[in-house]
Amino acid sequence: MQRAKVMLRSVYRSLMTNPVSGLRRMSQSSLAGKVAIVTASTDGIGLAAAQALGHRGAHVVVSSRRQANVDKAVSLLQSENIQATGTTCNVGISEDRERLINMTVEKCGGVDILVSNAAVNPYFGNIMDSTEEVWDKILSVNVKAAFLMTKLVVPHMEKRGGGSVVIVSSVAAYQPMQALGPYSVSKTALLGLTRAMAPELAQLNIRVNCVAPGVIKTRFSSALWQNEDVVDEFKKQLCIKRIGEPEEIGGVIAFLCSKEASYMTGETVSVTGGISCRL
Ligand SMILES: NC(=O)c1ccc[n+]([C@@H]2O[C@H](COP(=O)([O-])OP(=O)(O)OC[C@H]3O[C@@H](n4cnc5c(N)ncnc54)[C@H](OP(=O)(O)O)[C@@H]3O)[C@@H](O)[C@H]2O)c1
């Protein structure tokens, strides 16, 4: 009995001092002490990103347009032992964006990570029938707000000596989806925005990367995955013959924000189950 106890103690000691297990512990908590803002994070991919960042030790600041959704998301994250704060923020409204950043700096002391995840799609139909209002709305929320949010956080990241921005685009950026022309174009613009900002922000030790999810099971895409004919059509393009889950995007976002991705910037990672992504 005594011998077994001694052996167990020695195995434990060796695990604690072993450089490989040490590294594993370090990488699990590799975002400890970081503050992460995730927009549109009370559901779907944004919420999954908040969970992935939080489980790696970051303090996450969640937001969306509705207070009830924010409260629910904060409670969920806290029930998973994640440090979480939240506020409402419609990313299309300038005062909301500023309030989100100010609240984060006041409550959390700074900003290290921004996940720009919010997007809208108010229009289904032929692109040639889409109106100026549709284009204004889509470009304002999906593209302009992603840039303006980044512009707002950069001075705070600079104060911390660097940071990481991840922008959520879509497989539609590469292959415009039928009836989703303006939305698809806005997602292509985000690939350009990522590349345009990366060189300037690298000088401040801020990395900017992008994720292009395929079809992921969320409310946003329910019109696609609830329609069996559409799913069957998609499956023809997929190597992995199923719809993706939000967690499968959240983990990639957390990876891009971590030290493991320290040599990546200006990059778009497609997470599509194998759909070919080329412009
Ligand atoms: N699901 C897919 O298949 C898929 C594929 C490729 C890319 N994406 C992209 O992934 C991102 C997230 O989509 P999702 O599928 O995760 O959507 P989702 O599950 O429907 O969640 C949308 C979230 O956005 C919030 N929201 C909506 N409009 C907002 C606004 N103007 N400002 C702030 N928050 C807002 C919603 O909360 P409130 O209602 O409280 O505002 C909710 O938290 C989008 O950029 C989308 O284009 C999705």
UniProtKB/TrEMBL annotation:
Record keywords, A-Z: Oxidoreductase
Listed InterPro entries: NAD(P)-bd_dom_sf, Sc_DH/Rdtase_CS, SDR_fam
GO MF terms held by the record: carbonyl reductase (NADPH) activity
SUPFAM superfamilies per UniProt: NAD(P)-binding Rossmann-fold domains
Domain of life, source organism: Eukaryota
Any Pfam family matching the protein: adh_short_C2
Stated family: Belongs to the short-chain dehydrogenases/reductases (SDR) family.
Name of the protein in question: Dehydrogenase/reductase SDR family member 4
Species assigned in the record: Osmerus mordax
